[in-house]
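Review form for a predicted model. The reviewer records the input and the model, then writes brief findings.
Reviewer: anonymous (R2)
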Amino acid sequence: MFLAPMEGLGDRRLRRALARSTGGFDEACREFTRVPGALSQGAKPEKLLRGVALNGYAADELLFLGDETSGETEDMHLLAAQVMGSNPELLERCARFLAAEGGAPRVDLNCGCPANVVTGKGAGSSLLRDPADVYESVAAVARGVRGTGCAVTAKLRSGYDDRGLLRENLLAAQAGGAAFVTLHPRTRREGYTGHARWEDIAFAVDVLDVPVVGNGDVTSPAKAFELVRETNCAGVMIGRGAVQDPLVFRRIKTAFASSGRDDAFDSDLDPNEPAAIKRFLRAFAAEAFAGEALPGARVRASKRLSARDLEKFKLGKLKQVCKYLFAANPGLTPHLAAVLSADENAVTAEATLERIERLVEAHWRAPTDVLVDAFSMRAGYERGMRDGGKAV
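Model under review:
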């Protein structure tokens, strides 16, 4: 089981908070590193690309973390890296820095990001318009890590505007050297809306010789079972579902271990669950309240946040998590609007966290099987897709 890389949401704070509290996933991958399409005139390539590749990346980010309250430890693996770009030469060089100097156990190529700011530069899911671009980009990453023992993988969507090139893109990734392929079965045009078409994952399993990891709409043990049963995929990657339910990985492991029993998908509330969710919230706050908006990155003194902006940032991160945590939980949903309306001029982030903890203690229920999608709920996203993917 993989924790998905998600820019802004599934970042270092979330990864470490889950590892320190509820855990359960087998591997995580850092959100994508943007590899430039070209170097500016006069730039020093080695210095610039080393900085791009290694800034904020730490292979041992999740090691030695465990539940500090319960004393449980998690057997965490090194953190994988992900690159996103369209220039094969620069992808190769960044991959080399990540593998040789960063100690990355795996470098994943992002062929799936649907954001206009990304696809407009020929990266992310825009690679899916031409299987030759997928092949050349994956092969470039493979050349970069050659001889280091680092694995190469690729994360794809089903297509750009449609699924017409799905087979060709899958085979191109495999031919380029991908050790396994992760497929999110929506097109770039679909964004994160609607239901993931798991039949695309089953198709990928049939087409490829390398393993396929399924990603998309897994929010519960029952959904994980259904995905594996319908597609025969070799692994499951969960993104938004892990924010909706921080216990989802542990629930899935328990259900798979008892799959022959009638109560494998029993959703009755465990009396210890509210305490586990509060541990997650405290662990997340410890990361988000650390004092900088970008943990692990070098920040010039002139770029440091003011006290007011830092308080606003802390509140923003709490609200971001609660959008998912509360909206998927029937006991907490009625309280979401009140949490999202918290104002940094009237209440501190710490006081808001304490209020959220009290709500969890009083109202937490087993989450419903509903996929919450804050990204696609942004005003104008679907309209922008209908208008040809223009920036919104």
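Findings: The longest strand covers residues 151-159.
Further findings: Residues 293-302, 375-392 have pLDDT under 50 and may be disordered.
Recommendation: see findings above.
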